[in-house]
Write a structure and sequence with these properties.
- The chain starts with a helix and ends with a helix.
- The chain is elongated, with a radius of gyration of 33 Å.
- The chain contains 17 helices and four strands.
Length: 419
């Protein structure tokens, strides 16, 4: 009981000193919110611009058959394409001129023998012309056309197969051309109906389940960005912890502490408690403001958020004490802590580029991010906020953070110079 009281007294003394440092408070609370506002606005603007993209294309269809009409019907269903049908009398030179003038991004030219080439299995070809100044769209539009042509190719292959079987079996010779065509059409209809049914009702269906939120709801980028910036700036306290250690050594506070009955571990624990409370307050203030004013989702497990934040605070404070233990001066401790804060923030994925967090990607840096405390803390927050996870799902993240904190604590207690 006496030990706990001594730790609390030391922690309260240090906490009072911490909250008087307005510059530090601005860094760990004001900066994450400012960065979140700027980055969220940028991402939101990019998403709105991306969702409103339209690619103007011209289609010159010289074919009279059903196959070309099937392709046009499929292209009409693609929202990103703004299609203009040209007159069949337009020449290739006129279409080229339209592209060079910037009227269209691309032009699709369907030749007159398109349907007949598919019907007799001699082959058909579609031309895609792209504005030279917008050549990046070429591969995108080619992929779209390939997808639109797939049903036509399948029907052509099936029709050719039916005709080949009928000819090989001598059925065609026994029927009039009209009867052969009718039999071919009937068989094709049965096969295509069955194929359509198979495609619409898969043997192995994929059940899309969203337990986190409405999949049609717009993305709230505060969910993705604020946890990263919060974790990143919380590690700026590592330098503050180291600086406080050397400041107290310089003014003789440590000598007074060592003259008292407190053990080394108790002094370290008191320091960790003071700065740990600061980390917890930082997270709760930032998350509370983001949830209240910017509709940030906090998930369905408040207890999970509290426990994960406590684990984060233990890692931050124990790392600060370890840096102080391994440094020879307050200036050196501050330099090391700043280097670690930025380096580990980058490796941990605190600064996010794109919608997929670093720790969920499949590359070497993503694997490395899981071995730094920032990466584990962010992974836990991501599960709670964006995947509606509970305490059980984040137990691995909390366990790794506690293990890291224990290692840092042992090193700090062992190497910290008390003279």
């Amino acid at each position: 009981m006496k030990t706990i009281k001594q730790i609390l007294n030391l922690a309260w003394k240090d906490f009072q000193i911490i909250i008087r440092d307005r510059g530090m408070l601005a860094v760990i609370i004001g900066m994450p919110m400012l960065f979140g506002l700027i980055m969220s606005s940028a991402y939101s603007g990019n998403q709105q611009n991306a969702s409103s993209i339209e690619i103007p294309i011209a289609i010159l269809n010289k074919d009279e058959g059903n196959y070309s009409q099937t392709v046009l019907d499929i292209l009409d269903q693609i929202d990103v394409l703004k299609i203009t049908s040209l007159s069949k009398t337009e020449s290739l030179e006129a279409v080229n001129k339209m592209l060079l003038n910037g009227e269209y991004t691309a032009a699709v030219i369907i030749p007159a023998d398109f349907s007949s080439g598919i019907a007799d299995y001699s082959g058909a070809e579609i031309s895609l012309l792209v504005d030279p100044q917008k050549s990046d769209f070429g591969q995108i539009l080619k992929n779209i056309l390939d997808a639109a042509l797939a049903p036509v190719v399948v029907e052509g292959e099936i029709r050719y197969g039916i005709r080949s079987v009928m000819e090989a079996g001598g059925i065609t010779e026994k029927l009039t051309p009209e009867m052969a065509a009718a039999s071919e059409a009937q068989t094709l209809g049965v096969v295509m109906t069955r194929l359509g049914s198979m495609l619409s009702t898969s043997l192995i269906p994929v059940n899309l389940v969203s337990t986190a939120r409405d999949p049609n709801a717009p993305i709230n980028f505060f969910n993705l960005l604020i946890p990263g910036f919060t974790v990143m700036f919380s590690f700026f306290l590592v330098g503050v912890v180291g600086e406080s250690i050397f400041r107290e050594k310089d003014d003789g506070t440590y000598r007074r502490l060592m003259a008292g009955p407190m053990q080394r571990g108790e002094i370290v624990a008191g320091k960790m408690l003071a700065f740990g409370v600061m980390v917890v307050l930082q997270v709760f203030i930032l998350f509370g403001v983001a949830a209240s004013f910017f509709s940030m989702d906090l998930g369905s497990s408040p207890l999970g958020l509290i426990l994960l934040t406590i684990c984060l605070s233990l890692v931050v404070t124990s790392m600060g004490l370890m840096v102080a233990a391994l440094s020879n001066s307050g200036k050196q401790a501050d330099s090391i802590s700043m280097l670690l804060a930025f380096l580990l923030a980058g490796l941990g994925g605190c600064i996010q580029f794109g919608l997929t967090p670093l720790f969920l990607q499949d590359n070497f840096i993503a694997t490395l991010s899981r071995f730094v405390p920032q990466g584990q803390a962010l992974w836990g927050y991501y599960r709670l906020i964006n995947q509606n996870a509970g305490i059980v799902e984040i137990l691995p993240n909390m366990g790794i953070l506690l293990l890291m904190a224990a290692v840092f604590f042992v090193i700090a207690s062992w190497r910290l110079k008390w003279n």
